[in-house]
Design goal:
alpha/beta; D-Maltodextrin-Binding Protein, domain 2; 2 domains; 6-stranded mixed beta sheet
Length: 271
């Protein structure tokens, strides 16, 4: 029987404290040594997870569908309900500078868009999927890539971009943090809209892990919901609870990705 598992996050910084607490919780509940590794860049970690070189991951729902649809390699363990939320859903804020004067999506014509990563759902494809549904979507003057939601926020505050789609859980995490830099940045920004609600990112385990271990891990995660009170360490890290997740829960992301990529082909050559 496998006696050690590695857990990684391919998501933003707000998930790191949660993963660290979940690793300790799973170790205590199952007797299997679960370690959280945040030393690798997310792309490297994602590739190792996809190959089974890392056993467990918390990954973007879009990344899950793209990898799973190319080759069935994961079992979905659970999806989170973040602290302050009542359902396993999240969305993107359209964020602009406080002093920009922009009040609505229609006023984003000829503005500078910054995305966190071309493969991100909340920071990229959620926006284009929403744009694809608009009768008269505004055209941006340019699009640049920042590398992370936090960097996108920094660029907005510095006046280097006009608008970004930001994962609401990341935005809220920094809003409640005690990090002076991010507090100063967020004080200069505001949201003009919430777009593209979607199921929260899944926790997955690679199929190379035996079914007995996978079942034990899933049961331990879902047991959190049944506890009279979620351990304070986990709740303080930003997690309210975990609920059952199925592959078909992420069909809406598959549809949004098709909308997004179809729309991008039509508009990106104009930027």
């Amino acid at each position: 029987m496998q006696t050690a598992l590695t857990l990684i996050s391919c998501l933003a910084e707000n998930t790191y404290p949660i993963c660290a607490q979940l690793a300790d919780y799973l170790t205590a509940q199952t007797g299997i040594q679960v370690s959280f590794d945040q030393s690798m860049p997310w792309l490297e970690a994602s590739e190792k997870l996809a190959k089974g070189q890392i056993q467990m991951g918390w990954i973007c729902g879009l990344l899950y569908t793209l990898q799973q649809d190319r080759q069935v390699r994961y079992q979905v363990l659970a999806k989170p309900i973040f602290a302050g939320h009542h359902e396993p859903l999240y969305f993107s804020y359209l964020v602009v500078h406080q002093d920009s004067g922009i009040q609505s999506i229609a006023e984003l014509v000829n503005k500078r868009l910054v995305i966190n990563d071309p493969d991100s759902y909340s920071g990229h494809h959620a926006l284009w999927a929403h744009w694809a549904k608009l009768s008269n979507p505004p055209q941006f003057a340019s699009m640049t890539t920042s590398g992370s939601h936090s960097n996108s926020l920094r660029m907005l505050a510095a006046g280097e971009a006009d608008v970004a789609a930001i994962d609401c859980t990341v935005f809220d995490y920094w809003l409640q943090s005690n990090k002076p830099e991010m507090q100063e940045i967020l004080s200069q920004l505001r949201s003009i809209a919430q777009i593209s609600p979607a199921p929260t990112p899944p926790l997955v385990i690679h199929n190379t892990v035996g079914i007995e271990i996978s079942t034990m891990i899933r049961q331990a995660l879902l047991q959190l919901t049944l506890l009279a009170q979620v351990p304070i360490e986990i709740k303080s890290a930003g997690l309210s609870s975990l609920v059952t997740a199925l592959d078909q829960d992420y069909d809406c992301m598959r549809q949004s990705y098709r909308l997004s990529t179809g729309f991008i082909k039509d508009v990106l050559h104009l930027l």
